[in-house]
Write a structure and sequence with these properties.
Helix content: 55-70%
Shape: elongated
Oligomer: single chain
Number of strands: 15
Structural class: alpha/beta
Number of helices: 26
Radius of gyration: 31 Å
Length: 637
């Protein structure tokens, strides 16, 4: 029995959709089960606010817990921090000690000295951690307290870990608050000594629930395997700090995968350089958890226009916790996502989308899309897609190539289906959206695994999806003479000024789209404000390219084509329409975003984009078209 190519294509898409369900269900189940976000503050920041307000640290933390705080960040203290009085002890050179100690230290090395006065800190506790990190160092005890002579100089320990923050650890234990512990760099020490010091902290503090190395270099670097062993043996997740440039972080993350918790924070330098205020920081934190599935949010009381107060910091935390409650993520202490691999059905679904989207483009360009196709050719295409799916499932390089080209191909097929349905626009739009949905979920099912969700692996094809669909549509239109002239006709005659203007406009727009993709710094402030407004109104903000360019261009194309207006110039509307489907297809490639949120975002883009398109069509019909009748011909002539 024979069927036309249209039916073959839709049958392949339906099969791909069915095969994607197992992978989609696995991803959806994990996302729902692990949709918990931890809101964390640094203990030293809280202590500073408490001192400023004249209240106890316990009271300050109680107020912040009521506002949504779920954990405390505590870490190792460096020599510089101890010198500045972070703990009630003296840290410095031998010659800075009282004369009563001079006899005891005579003849010893000139290493840094830790002096604990009687009654300020538990001497046995300090000694355990000094020995764990530095070994059996010289130790002296007298009426004025206890003294430890370290084997390293002050300069060597300035940016290196010396002692853990005993006060923060004790307070967290008292309040039963989960701890995000930050081991500092171990300059000048063997990696095993740093791990022994970390082990002493973990043995005494069961409330440590995750690790996040601090400083420019990972603890025990270059032997990051030592820290990876601690993470695996203790079953403690590692915080994966977003946009971190820490030396050793990437190899460490690969070694402990998938025991990772993505973390987001805003540094004081970024706040000052970009002029962020409290509202923007709160919205950014909510967006990070909602859109990028960040599991740990670190808030710091930074001065926006004056000294930060406890009440202002509490208000920021409360605003974030309310934002979480409205939009999905639960506040609590998160757990890492489990490990799973994409299945064979997911790979076959992706291969079906690639093969049949490519064939549809060839059929449309060759003018054979509506022709009859025999059973044997259809089965051969199906067998080829299945074989490609098996190879895709087994060979990572092939999977990368298939993914990179599947997305621009199905986005192009979706766009052409919508454009060619101008006689019945609602039907053409629905066909294009169905192709987009099937291709999107096939990509999301196969690549939506922990490697890509945690961004250890990057997806190839995002830039191609923005650049190839306009080229496919343009080539199709010139070959099929959707544009009144073919490619040969255009090359044989001199260009018109209007065409030159449109060509420059299209090339400039393509450059802007490519540069702006993934580049937040190139977005102007007015657009950032508009995005914030749309997020508050729609929650899942649709992308600018599809909302304000792509779908409006598609609606205007329907209008111009049905009225047969400006046949030589409406190609720009067809090219602009590709942005709707290319941008929406790329949304499915953001695997760190929850699948439900992606579907919500794409749906909002269709709704809002078509709404703006209808509004633009109304303006054209009732304002521009009457003026064009009067003045347009004069301008063209």
């Amino acid at each position: 029995m024979n069927g036309n190519r249209h039916k073959v294509f839709w049958g392949a898409l339906s099969l791909a959709l069915l095969l994607s369900f197992p992978g989609l269900f696995q991803r959806w189940s994990v996302e729902e089960a692990t949709h918990t976000v931890g809101l964390v503050a640094a203990y030293r920041d809280v202590a500073a606010l408490a001192d400023q307000e004249g209240i106890e640290d316990e009271e300050a933390l109680g107020l912040l817990q009521e506002a949504g705080l779920t954990g405390l960040m505590v870490g190792d203290l460096t020599g510089k921090e101890l010198s500045n009085g972070a703990l009630p002890l003296w840290f410095g050179p031998k010659n800075g000690l009282p004369s009563t100690w001079s006899g005891a230290l005579e003849g010893d090395s000139d290493g840094a000295v830790v002096w604990v006065r009687q009654g300020d800190l538990d001497v046995d506790l300090v000694r355990r951690h000094v020995v764990a990190r530095f070994g059996d160092v010289p130790f002296y005890e007298g009426e004025e307290g206890a003294l430890f002579l370290l084997p390293l100089s002050l300069s060597a320990l300035e940016e290196a870990a010396v002692l853990p923050d005993f006060e923060g650890l004790a307070l967290s234990k008292e309040l039963a608050l989960p701890i995000l512990f930050r081991p500092a760099p171990s300059h000048g020490l063997d990696g095993s000594a740093a791990m022994a010091a970390l082990g002493a902290v973990l043995d005494e503090n069961a409330q440590v629930r995750a690790l996040a190395p601090s400083g420019p270099v990972v603890t025990a670097y270059p032997n990051v395997e030592l820290l990876a062993e601690v993470v695996r043996e203790r079953k403690l997740p590692l915080a994966k700090v977003e946009f971190s440039r820490q030396v050793g972080a990437i190899p460490l993350e690969w070694r402990v995968f998938p025991s990772l918790l993505p973390l987001h924070s805003v540094t004081a330098e970024e706040i000052q350089s970009r002029g962020l205020d409290g509202r923007q920081i709160v919205e950014r934190m909510v967006r990070a958890a909602r859109e990028r599935s960040l599991r740990l949010l670190v808030m710091r009381p930074v001065s926006y226009s004056g000294p930060q107060t406890m009440e202002a910091f509490r208000a920021d935390l409360l605003a974030i916790s309310r934002g979480m409650g409205r939009h999905g993520p639960r506040l609590g202490w998160p757990e890492p996502i489990p490990l799973w691999q994409a299945g064979l059905p997911d790979a076959v679904a992706l291969a079906l989308v690639l093969v049949f989207s490519a064939m549809v483009l060839l059929w449309r360009i060759g003018g054979r899309y509506g022709e009859v196709m025999g059973v044997l050719p259809a089965l051969l295409l199906g067998f080829f897609a299945v074989a490609l799916g098996v190879v895709t499932w087994k060979v990572p390089f092939v999977a990368r190539v298939v993914g990179a080209f599947a997305v621009p191909l199905f986005a192009s097929a979706a766009c052409l289906a919508a454009l060619e349905g101008w006689r019945t626009p609602w039907k053409g739009l629905l066909e294009g959206l169905f192709i987009l949905l099937v291709g999107g979920v096939a990509v999301a099912a196969f690549f939506g695994t922990p490697y890509f969700m945690l961004r250890l692996k990057a997806f190839s094809g995002v830039k191609l999806t923005l650049l190839l669909p306009p080229l496919f549509v343009l080539f199709h239109d010139l070959k099929r003479k959707v544009h009144p002239e073919g490619l040969g006709d255009l090359l044989r005659r001199p260009p018109l000024w209007g065409e030159i203007f449109l060509l420059v406009l299209l090339l400039g727009g393509a450059a802007v789209v490519a540069i702006r993709s993934g580049n937040v710094e190139s977005v102007p402030q007015w657009e950032i404000d508009l995005r914030d407004f749309l997020e508050q109104w729609l929650v899942a903000r649709p992308r600018t390219k599809e909302t304000f360019i792509g779908y409006p261009a598609l609606i205007l194309w329907y209008l111009f084509r049905r009225r047969d207006w400006l046949p030589s110039y409406r190609e720009v509307l067809r090219i602009g329409s590709t942005l709707a489907f290319a941008s929406a297809a790329n949304s499915f490639c953001h695997f760190h975003t929850h699948l439900i949120f992606t579907l919500w975002r794409v749906g909002n883009g269709v709704f809002l984009g078509c709404l703006f398109g209808v509004l633009a069509a109304f303006i054209v019909l009732h304002l521009i078209e009457p003026a064009w009748r009067r003045w347009g011909r004069i301008l063209l002539d």
